[in-house]
Amino acid sequence: MQNQQQPTTLTRHIRDGLQEEQHFGFITRVGRDGILETFGDTCGEPFYLRSCAKPLQASVIVDYELPLTAEEIALACGSNAGEKCHYETARRFADKFGITAEDLRCGIHKPLSKTRQAEMLFSGEKEDVFHNNCIGKHLTMLALCKRLGFATENYDKLDHPVQKLIIKKVNELCEVTTAFPITKDGCGVPILSMPLENMVKGFLNLFCDERYDKLTQAILKHPYIFGGEDRTDTKIIQESGLICKVGAGGLCIVINRDKQEGFVVKISDCDMKARELVTIDYINRLGWAANEIHSGKIAAEHSIKTLHGEKIGEIETIV
Questions:
Q1: In sequence order, what are the residues at sequence separation of 6 or more whose Cβ sits closer than 8 angstroms to the Cβ of residue 275?
Q2: DSSP tally for the chain: helices H, then strands E
Q3: Is residue 21 part of a domain?
Q4: What CA–CA distance (Å, rounded) separates 137 from 143?
Q5: With CB atoms 3.0 to 4.6 Å apart as the test, which of 41, 68, 126, 206 could cross-link to 6 if both were Cys?
Q6: Bridge partners of 29?
Q7: Mean pLDDT over residues 246-261, rounded?
Q8: Interval 111-159: pLDDT, tens
């Protein structure tokens, strides 16, 4: 697979008149009747959903009526930065369902927040499983196990009933009927692959359905719990009111519920700066950042500067 793809240039770094860097990738914009616009040709080949799967996986919160607060739902849908607000929300979530650190299989890493990393370094605190950016997803899976009477051991394995249930749900939302490759995400749980069009279809079917409005409102009301410091999706939600979710592998999905359209950006080399600029500039080109609450454009820094603050170049996006 993925031998026939034809990515297109999405960003160019021009430094004092000379191009020194460029990033390739794809954009697929989708409406209720199908694809509306594309950049690059994926030939319909699949990509892994990575963390863009989280809101889709969290749909089970509504399906099985898990008693969560709006903050806990936002945590479940997002990739949090491991700050105090995220850590405390995760601990409350765990306590509600009697989930312990030993139950959780997501692994341990430092908080994504650089500020929180520095605070913990100076205070001598050690990171634990509740700092993991995927903690909300794992807590949801364990809570669902307890709700449905499934064993909590090995809940992260492909053949566990909670994973079978969630995989079936994600495929239904994304209108996937073909068996595409499955891998393990960084946190260890199964993650599906599918064409970019189907990723957007899944988000449209989730966020444009009143049944799942509880998830939509939780994200819109608590975008910082959903992401956090320096998170692209938090920035876009706060400045536009759109639904946005980033994922590893250079992914970002944006949904305009008013227009019932959405798009996905896939940066081939997974560069995070390119992903952010392409996503924001495409939103601005479409005029999606202007609505009843938000007006104008989402701000994005395109300048290339020295350490002294002197501008010596520009990052151009081709969208």
A1: 232, 246, 250, 251, 252, 265, 267
A2: 12, 11
A3: yes
A4: 10
A5: 41
A6: 37, 263
A7: 98
A8: 999 999 999 999 999 999 999 999 999 999 999 999 999 999 999 999 9
Using CA atoms, how far apart are residues 281 and 183, in angstroms rounded to an integer?
A: 31
What's the CA gap between 265 and 275, in Å, rounded?
A: 7
Nearest to 191 by CA among 40, 79, 65: 79
What the block records as the tokens of 92 is 């409350």
The per-residue pLDDT for range 193-210, each reduced to its tens digit, is 999 999 999 999 999 999
Report yes or no on 86 lying in a domain.
yes
Assigned domain for 313 exists: yes
* Structural domain harbouring 124: 8-317
pLDDT at 162: 98
Q: How would you classify the pairing of strands 243-247 and 251-256?
A: antiparallel
Residues in contact with 306: Cβ distance below 8 Å, sequence separation at least 6, in sequence order: 312
Would 121 be classed as within a structural domain? yes
Residue 286 has pLDDT above 70, yes or no: yes
Q: Over range 286-309, report the average pLDDT.
A: 86
Q: How many degrees, rounded to 5, is the angle at CA 112 between CA 59 and CA 257?
A: 35
Token pair, residue 203, equals: 């988000």
Query: Which of 256, 249, 264 is closest to 220 using CA atoms?
Result: 256
Separation between Cα atoms, residue 256 and residue 36, nearest integer Å: 14
> What's the structural domain count of the chain?
1
Look at the block and give the residue holding tokens 């305009």.
256
